[in-house]
Every structure is written in structure tokens, then in C-alpha cells.
Amino acid sequence: MKNTFKTIHSLNQSAEGSIVELRGWVAGRRDSKGLCFVVFRDGSGYCQCVFSKEQLGEELFEQTKSFSLESSLIVRGSLHFDERQEGGKEIQVQSFEIISVSEEYPISKKAHGTDFLLSQRHLWLRSKRQWAIMQIRNATVFAIHKFFQEREFVQMDAPILSSNAAENSTELFATEYFDRSAFLSQSGQLYGEAMAMAQGKIYTFGPTFRAEKSKTRRHLTEFWMMEPEMAFYDLDMNMDLIEEMLRYIVNDVMGRCPEAFQVLGRNLEALQSVNQIFPRIPYDLAVQILRSEVDVNGITAKSYLEGEIKKEVARQKEVMLEIEERELAANDMNSKKGVRNFNRNKADSLKNDLKQIEENLRNYPKWLDSASNFSHGEDFGGSDETVLTMLYGCPIMVYRWPKAIKAFYMKVDPDYPDYAKGVDVLAPEGYGEIVGGGERETDIDYLLEQIERHDLPQNAYQWYLDLRRYGNVPHSGFGLGLERLLCWICKLEHIREAIPFPRTSQRLEP
Ligand code: 4AD
Ligand code: MG
Questions:
Q1: Which of 93, 168, 252, 291 has the most CB atoms at less than 10 Å from its CB?
Q2: pTM over the 0.90 mark
Q3: Are residues 128 and 238 in the same domain?
Q4: What confidence tens digit (pLDDT) does each residue in 373-395 have?
Q5: Which ligand is closest to the CA of 482, given by its number?
Q6: Does 57 share its domain with 123?
């Protein structure tokens, strides 16, 4: 078969009026007298195809009646650019061929529950919103590789099967490995450290597994992590690199995916916050901020949240009033159907806003309570991370953590012996931790102590300890959770939309 067709995306380079062939699927249809308007998709984008009886003749036009949702077609016609149309272009169809008429498609325009959609994930991926997310995922992965390749990092693949824990032994997935047991990798870091001693600067990018039982919107059991590791980098250099990387990725993706962001209705201003300098906040200060003992630019967490509660109460009143008005207009039989539908849709969307407001009003007092009573030495919970980032509106880096709550390999800060040189990056808009990393401990005796304290089998770590025996150097690295980053970039409600086929404690299919 000769490749004669173009992609919808590439049509932007074609001339007005040129004859093009497209191959794809029916994503929507609308009929009017002698005309059939199809929203056509081919994976690269969307465009409108107009089938007219006048152009096609009675017999061929008759066939358009069989265009059910997701039917596959080849269409040929003339290309016309039109701002008002889907994707800014339209094809006036001159001829077409039906490849397959689809059975009644299970996913329709009506609102489906998430559980239903997740069980239809193999089809749900075709929906416009999911398409947009996967386009952004692809651009994000590409940007990550570009960033590191341009800076002389060497990509390496870490093993998935391993005999030891990289992070902590409680979240391991165990599997049979011939006559012994093995675990699925939680992180490629320890192997990355070995490779950094061979290649200088490396990054791994692969699937990682954690037996997380928690049902949160931030946790998957299988997720993709990108982990750079750099010889001769200390914590400050590490933080500089993280900041430069996030700024690069987000700007690059915003530039490459305008259509996808438009589909998602993503406010790009919030993402532009990567261009601010990321505040670097020691853990101790973060705790004081949470407890409202210290303010940020004159505002304490308490005054901020109390202000937000007031604002939400006012908005709640406004929205409730508008819903009432819209519903009256939607039921007004004296007005046109279009006007009634418009008001109906507006009322529905306002009801969603109202739900969000009500949720915020339930949450804010709880968050405030949890933040005010935060106990020094603990890890931050999801709401604590949200409260902290609310006060800044851009990504922040929390560093110098109590060593007791960090992994065994983390370097102790010589100036603060109870603290480790770790860093977490928290994304704004309530997305929380997207990056975790730090400087690695180089003192072999301390590492041995930690391995024992964390109840890890010393034998399995002998190879890792060799890195401290032979050509030991200071080094640092971090892990970026791809899906966590995507959640923020795309402003997703739940992390399961950020990965093609999500794995959670509840779900292993499809
Ligand atoms: O903070 P974590 O546990 O750090 C590590 O694994 C280090 N070995 C990384 C390194 O220094 N090389 O995980 C790193 C990141 C988190 O910041 C988060 O973005 C993501 O991985 N992550 C998860 N994403 C989705 N679902 C989960 N269950 C995740 N757990 C961690
Ligand atoms: Mg972490």
C-alpha cells in the first residue's frame, strides 16, 4: 500500500484549497439538510469534514447515514482553513471509503462515571481529553530527554528485577525468581549511582513499582520515574539542576502542545510560574510556616486560609444565585431551544463549580487544623503540601529534612547532624511532591549503620557499598515522577489519567 495520506496535524503546512487524503475515525457527527458534518480524528488532531449531497451525489451521500461514532474512513477532499472550525480547518469531501462501521460505541457524550471509563480505558484513550493528555505526556518525555541529552547526561536502563529495596522495604512487590524471591524495582537510583561513577552524569527513565495500598489521587502502584545522578554534585548544584529542568520541560511542552492545552482548558498562566525563582525552604522553616508561626510575604497560613474560606462563602452565594437564574432561563418555554440549552449547560457547569466550592469549604478548616498542629519531625501530608504551596503560587523546594524520615542513603548535613541533605519539590495548585532527591551519603560506616537501622539485608548492599570503597566522591541526584508532573501540567483531578493504563491497588485491568 502506498502512503498517500496526510495527518491532520500536518495539514497546517498544506495550501488552502489543496486536495488531501485523510484516514481516521468519526469522533462526532451532526446532520442538516443534504449535509453531514463529521468531527474527524486521526490521532494527530481533529478537523471537520463536510459531506454534502450536492458534491457526492445521492447514492454516496446515502452511505454517510452509516457513520456511527468511531467508524473508520478514508476521506479525500479540498482543504480550507477556517478559524471557527474544529482544529481551524475543514475538508470539503469529494470522495470517501468506509473501512469499518462501528458497533454502538459504549462511550457517549453523556457523563460517565470514572469507574466505567476506567474499565473502558482501551477505548477511553480515544476521547479528546485523554488524547490531549497523552500528547502532553509524549511531549514531556521528549523534553526530558532533550534537556538531559543537551547537557551531556548519559541515559541508562536500570534493572526492574532486584534482590533488594531501594527506598523502603514496606512497599515492595515481591515475585518469584526461580528458586528465590525477587522484588520489582521501586527506583533505579542505586544502579544510577554505580553508573554515575562510570559515566559522570546519567539518568534512568523507567517504570517503578510500589505496593501502595493508599487510595489517593496522587498514587499509582506502577509509575514512570526519571532519575538523574551526578558525580561531584552537592545538594545546591542538585537543586539548581532541578529548577532549570522543570523550567525547561514546562516551557518546552507549553510551546509544543497549544492545541492539547486548549482541549484541556488549562490556564497556562499557572504553568508560567516555573519562570519564577523557586523558593528554597529548609524543613524547619516550612514547619513554622505551616503552624503560622512565621509569615510568607506578610501572610500566615492561618490568615491565608481564613481569607480563602471567606472568599469561597461569598462565591458560594453568587454561584447559587446564578444557578437559580440559569435554571429559570433553561425552563423558559418562551425562549428558543438554543438559548434554553445554553442556560442548561451553564447551570450544569455551575453546579460542578458549586461542588468544588463545597469541597473546599469542607477541606480548608481541616487543612488549617492539620497545619496548625503539625508535629516537627513528621513527613508532610498531602494537605500540608497544598497549604505550603498555596502561600507561594509557584514550585517550592523544601530541603534539609530530619534524617529519621528519609531513606538510608541520604547524606547527613555536617552542620545539622540530625538532618539529611534531601530535597522535595512541591508543585503549586495542590499537586504536592513531584520531585524527591538529595545528596548521597559517602561515609561507608554511616551507611552500614543505616542499613542495619532500616532492617535491610547487608549482603544485598555489598555492591552498593563498593561505590564508597573505590573512588568514592560526593554525588547527588533526584527522581521526577512523570505522572505527578503531568497531573500538574494538565491540571488533572486524579493521577490515573496521566498514564495510558493505570495500575492502582484497585485496578489491574484493562
Ligand atoms: O521521593 P521518592 O520516593 O524518591 C526516590 O525514589 C528516589 N530514589 C529518587 C532519587 O533520588 N533518585 O520518589 C520520587 C518521585 C516522587 O517525588 C513522586 O514524584 C514519584 O516519584 N512517586 C510516585 N508517583 C506516582 N505514584 C507513586 N506511588 C509514587 N511514589 C513516588
Ligand atoms: Mg519522596
A1: 93
A2: yes
A3: yes
A4: 999 999 999 999 999 999 999 99
A5: 1
A6: no
